[in-house]
Amino acid sequence: MSNNKNEVLIVLTEQWNDWEGSYAIAVLNSFSDYEVKTIAIDYAPKKSMGGINASIDYEIGDYENFNNLAMVILPGGLSWEENEYIEIANFIKKLIGLHIPVAAICGATTFLCKHGLLNNVKHTGDSLELFQQQKEYKGEAFYIPAQIVIDNKIITANETAAVEFAYEIFKILKIDSDEELVQWYDNFKNGAIQ
């Protein structure tokens, strides 16, 4: 792998959707040169919707390893709409300014809308109507009704796009040849019956 940035962060909140990032983080951590680490607003373990308690590697306020950071993944979850998470919003703003890829799915896209972070990039999510209820959202002209949208190093996906989400993450991080990635996508999307 030519890229020397090898850390990928997954931002965890209470009631995070464990399945939405699972394809991506399992492959990245086990079959690539990338290392997936968890990050949150504090070091308290975060319980997923599936009941998995995940320990936290980094506190968002203390993270400074940007030169080694390849991407940040924000899985959905039940707490994105209920909380402001100003610390996370400021962190994502910094990443966007540094041109570090950000991948958000499901409720995490609503969170980005809430803080005006999708106002100037093409994006998708669970519904335009939901986005229009977010106070800082002014990005209607950039909304695309699709499973997944990539623009300016920002990946957004709706709640039914976990396989597409992983596939686009793999392509940006160049974890394998295009042919191998297409095969992976085809297998997980359509099945691999021999």
Helix content: 25-40%
CATH class: Alpha Beta
Structural class: alpha/beta
Radius of gyration: 16 Å
User: Strand content of the residues, in percent?
Assistant: 15-25%
What would the principal axes of the Cα set say about the shape? globular
Would you mind describing this structure in some detail?
The chain has 194 residues and is an alpha/beta fold. The chain has one domain: Class I glutamine amidotransferase (GATase) domain (Rossmann fold, 3-Layer(aba) Sandwich). It is 31% helix and 18% strand. The chain has six helices and nine strands; from the N terminus they run βαβββββαβααββαα. The protein has helices spanning 22-31, 86-97, 107-114, 128-132, 162-173, 178-190; strands at 7-11, 35-40, 46-47, 53-54, 58-59, 69-74, 102-105, 148-151, 154-157. It has a seven-stranded mixed sheet with strand order 5-2-1-6-7-9-8, sandwiched between helices. A two-stranded antiparallel sheet has the order 3-4. Strand 1 (7-11), helix 1 (22-31) and strand 2 (35-40) form a beta-alpha-beta unit. It is globular.
Write the layout of secondary structure elements.
Blueprint: E1 7-11, H1 22-31, E2 35-40, E3 46-47, E4 53-54, E5 58-59, E6 69-74, H2 86-97, E7 102-105, H3 107-114, H4 128-132, E8 148-151, E9 154-157, H5 162-173, H6 178-190
Parallel strand pairs: 1-2, 1-6, 2-5, 6-7, 7-9
Antiparallel strand pairs: 3-4, 8-9
Give short descriptive properties of this protein.
alpha/beta, Rossmann fold, seven-stranded mixed β-sheet
Outline of this structure?
By secondary structure, the chain is an alpha/beta fold. The protein has six helices and nine strands, in the order βαβββββαβααββαα.
